What does this fold into?
Amino acid sequence: MRILVATTNKGKLKEFKQLLEPFGIEVLSLDDMEEKFEVEEDKQTFLENAIKKAKEYAKFYNLPVIAEDAGLEVEVLNGYPGVYSARFYDIDFGGKEEVLDSKDKANIKKLLRLMEGVSNRKARFVSNVVFYSPDDFGLWAEGYCEGVITEEPKGEGGFGYDPVFQPEGYEKTMAQLTPEEKNKISHRGKAVRKLVEKLKKVL
Ligand code: ITT
It folds into this structure.
C-alpha cells in the first residue's frame, strides 16, 4: 500500500518512514508531489488540525494520506506550547524569541527561559495521527510520551524539543537516543503502531 505522509517537517518524515516501512507500507512525501499544496493549521486541538490536514491533502492529491499534529505540553505552562509547538518562539504567550539559527533553537531558548528556576519540569509529547482516503474513510490514533524538561540542551538526534526532553526512566534526552530507541518510546511511535493495527483490521 502507498500512503502520502503529509508533513513539511523532515525530522518527522524520516521517523514516519522508519515506522511505516516495516509494515510493507510505501511512503510518499510532499516532495514527491509535482503540484504544491499547503494546508493551514488553524484549529485549537491536535486532532482537529490532523483531521483537517489529512482530509485536504487526500482530496487534493487523490491519495490515501497520513497526517499528524504533534507537540509538547508542559504542566506548569498550562499545556503550552501545545498546538503552538512549531511556532512557539513567535506567539505572544511568554514573549517572542528572535530566530538566530533555527526555529527549533528559538523555541528551545524560549522554553528554557520560561522554565528558569522552575522545579516542576513535567512535560509530555503528544501525537495525533489521522489516516484519510479519498473515498472519505478515516481513522485516527494518539500517543503520549511522558518526561521532564532538562536545564540545558543535550544531544544531536531527533528534532524540535528533543534536546531538552528527558523521557521517563531515562537519564538521557530524546536527542541522545538512537532513532530505534526514540521510535520505541515516542508519542509518534505509539500513535503510528496503533493506527497501523486499526488499518490492518479494516483494509
Ligand atoms: P507538519 O505540520 O507539516 O507535519 P510541523 O513541524 O509544523 O510539520 P506540527 O504542527 O505537528 O508539525 O508541530 C509539531 C512541533 O512540535 C514540531 O515542530 C516540534 O517543535 C514539536 N515536536 C513534535 N514532535 C516532536 C518530537 O518527536 N520531538 C521533538 N519535538 C517535537
